Amino acid sequence: xxxxxxxxxxxxxxxxxxxxxxxxxxxxxxxxxxxxxxxxxxxxxxxxxxxxxxxxxxxxxxxxxxxxxxxxxxxxxxxxxxxxxxxxxxxxxxxxxxxxxxxxxxxxxxxxxxxxxxxxxxxxxxxxxxxxxxxxxxxxxxxxxxxxxxxxxxxxxxxxxxx
Length: 163
Hints:
Elements: H1 20-29, H2 33-39, H3 48-59, H4 92-101, E1 116-117, E2 120-121, E3 125-128, E4 141-144, H5 146-150, H6 158-162
Helix pairs in contact: 2-3
Protein name: HNH endonuclease
GO molecular function, one term: endonuclease activity
Organism: Streptomyces sp. NBC_00119
């Protein structure tokens, strides 16, 4: 609009949820990006850490006091347990592998379709029966074909949005 010579000075400025000042304050008392996200009250899932990290870099905020990322020592945590939402998601592929290791049949729990459909490979998806993505107990998980999964009440957070 500016290029066209239109005055936009009366338009409201772009709204920012996490201003540079707020980020500087929170980063100063935090020890990691995950801690910054937690202190801002943002859910620790999706691309929130990456988004906040990019904003911090954009403003040139010093993070040299952050602790180094710890290396995973020992065996990985069990995947098929009730977790805390603050722990973040366990990837569906990791849950699927754990279910198969525990002896779950590699068939859709609703229609019985296996790992092949119309002569082509079919990847079964992990469904959380109660709609809570952090509840990874075996009794709350099932494998579904994409068609059956898409019509469930809990598909892609559907149950959460309607509640």
